[in-house]
Structure to design on (410 residues):
DNA sequence: GTTAGCATGTAAGGAGTTACATGATTTT
DNA sequence: AAAATCATGTAACTCCTTACATGCTAAC
């Protein structure tokens, strides 16, 4: 029955509101701009999510700046949301989560979008996790392709070929990112702490 | 409450059973081999789907070959499914559907996997529909990127860049496929009819 | 003064996923 | 006869999508 417990949206909303307060409509545009090519949300997902985050006290309505700037007559105008202290904590928790969910397609994209707020060691774990996940996929597809060369017509083969190449391409991309991360913050001891950005998302192409 | 009305699974299952009868376990493996890198299903999706297709009379249990080859004592062994006449009709209907659903990520992949069973004119419409869809996406992402160059950190930018490149790559792939299709079957008049394969999924790289 | 776009929401439901439960068959 | 793996199934749940309903605000 609704409630939007977790999912990518929660992280995305908290992450965006961490930058600056915003109202829903604006949030949605920015959401689809940041997640860009690989994910899109509609209002039907966003507003229920905001409602739930509000209920949990992770976000709050911003007090309207000017003194009685339109005294909200029948209650229907822009509602600007901001992150609460609990919301910031929750965001940090989500950003520290480096489990399987962070290397599935959806989870990875959103986590990556907020790498700027993520600790270097977590970034590395997510990048490596994602890479293993993709390599598993490559293995199983390649295995399936060689198994008796299951009679496949040319279109199916072409689809497989293109799929494989896409995944291989992403693996190369991850390799570059990982190399670039190692350069900027080798994490010498068991260090853990500040999460200010330090990696520069390699222009290593 | 369940029922699996449409969705990609129905097409995929009917398409696979069109080649040859199979039981569920086998079907699932082949499913994940054909759809390979871009989609995977579990039993929790497949079996309810088979159940529903059975209910609709689109598939049927194959009569066990040998005479009373294990008289199915407590009913628990391999169940081989085959396509019925209605199932074949339904498959043809699905293969003729070239609407928005056929150029979204999921729908496109599955439709493409069965291009061998699809009429040439429909193939073309789907390829072109997919291409427009991706070009829309490119436009909106590029627009978002240039709009005041929304302050984005380096990771977000890197994500956008990689996303754009992936989509551009797919567009190029589609262009090659479309060119290759035009060569083999230019569809001279208002021709419509046979759906035997004739395109050869261009090795035009 | 009416179209167009900004802004907020809800109800119903689709399409799978997860976790579980269980039996049959082959391998060691 | 124990372990692995083949094989089938269900209940509960998740997360989002679609379609709808509404009102405000600026431009023409």
């Amino acid at each position: 029955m609704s409630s939007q417990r977790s999912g990518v949206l929660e992280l995305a909303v908290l992450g965006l509101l961490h930058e600056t307060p915003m109202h829903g409509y604006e949030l949605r545009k920015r959401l689809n701009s940041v997640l860009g090519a690989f994910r899109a949300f509609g209002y039907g997902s966003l507003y229920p999510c905001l409602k739930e985050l509000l209920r949990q006290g992770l976000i709050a309505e911003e007090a309207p700046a000017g003194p009685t700037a339109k005294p909200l007559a029948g209650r229907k105008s822009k509602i600007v949301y901001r992150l609460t202290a609990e919301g910031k904590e929750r965001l940090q928790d989500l950003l520290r989560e480096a489990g399987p969910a962070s290397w599935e397609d959806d989870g990875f994209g959103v986590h990556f979008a907020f790498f700027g707020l993520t600790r270097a060691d977590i970034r590395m774990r997510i990048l490596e996790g994602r890479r293993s996940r993709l390599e598993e996929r490559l293995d199983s597809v390649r295995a399936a392709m060689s198994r008796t060369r299951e009679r496949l017509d040319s279109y199916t083969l072409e689809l497989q070929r293109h799929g494989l190449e896409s995944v291989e391409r992403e693996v190369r991309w991850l390799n570059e990112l990982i190399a670039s991360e190692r350069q900027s913050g080798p994490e010498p001891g068991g260090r853990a702490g500040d999460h200010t950005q330090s990696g520069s998302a390699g222009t290593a192409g």
Q: What stands out?
A: Confidence is low (pLDDT under 50) at residues 66-74, 190-195 of chain A. Residues 1-9, 41-42, 44-45, 48, 74, 76-77 of chain A lie near DNA strand D (CB under 10 Å from a C1'). Chain A has two domains: 8-65+77-103, 119-184. DSSP finds seven helices and three strands in chain A.
